[in-house]
Amino acid sequence: MIETKALTKTIGEKMILRGVNLKVNKGEAVAVLGTNGAGKSTWLKIVAGLLKPSSGEIFLKGQPRKKDDFEQQKVLGYLGHQSFLYDAFSPVENLKFFARLYHISSPDTRINKLIEDVGLAYFKHEPVRSFSRGMIQRLAIARAILHKPEILLLDEPHTGLDQQAVSLFNRLLLDLKAEGVTIIMVTHDFQQISTVCDRAVVLRKGRIAEDELIRGRPVSWIHSLYEGEAATL
């Protein structure tokens, strides 16, 4: 579904990614772990088309990644540190705007369902500028999946969410996973990894250091994998 081969990224004199070879198959839910500066978000942004690699290859559904290819881009849903929302617009207005960008016809039913799914139905006509950080994150989640992407790229998606929102979001992710959506999640939240993901990839200094199946593993084992101390059985 997604594959990067010998992917590198240099910014100034610093090499962020050092030949990352990573393949994620259709329907997998993969956590990408690592300390700050390990290259996690950089790899995700390159796959999303937001950054250009210094060298290497990217394949999406078996085809080379092309710049400004709308057909490839609409396969992806991306949730980063920026919400990409317009603060003067309401949730409904924001999602209608993005529906037009994705050429979604008659989006009202889907928009209303997504707003309800992320727990914002009561605020659907209020301007986003009045929202808390967690409410903005809820709406950004709805934006990322509005066009029913086949691949969902998530960068610290649980940031700012309260426990109710975390439960709603995880249930949404598990439903998408059951539908065959491929999920790649950059995170430091080991508890959420154990709930949603099947596999964990650990980056250290721009290289893949660990790549293990984690389904059924305790949170403590995932933490030890992150620390490079896990025993392989």
Automatic annotation (TrEMBL):
The keyword Cytoplasm does not apply. It holds the Pfam family ABC_tran. InterPro entries: AAA+_ATPase, ABC_transporter-like_ATP-bd, ABC_Transporter_VariousFunc, ABC_transptr_haem_export_CcmA, P-loop_NTPase. Residues 2-230 form the ABC transporter domain. SUPFAM superfamilies: P-loop containing nucleoside triphosphate hydrolases (SSF52540). It comes from the Bacteria. This is Heme exporter protein A. One of its GO terms (molecular function) is transmembrane transporter activity. Keywords: ATP-binding, Cytochrome c-type biogenesis, Nucleotide-binding, Transport. The lineage of its organism: Bacteria, Bacillati, Bacillota, Bacilli, Bacillales. The keyword Metal-binding does not apply. SMART domains: AAA. One of its GO terms (biological process) is cytochrome complex assembly. Signal peptide: none annotated.
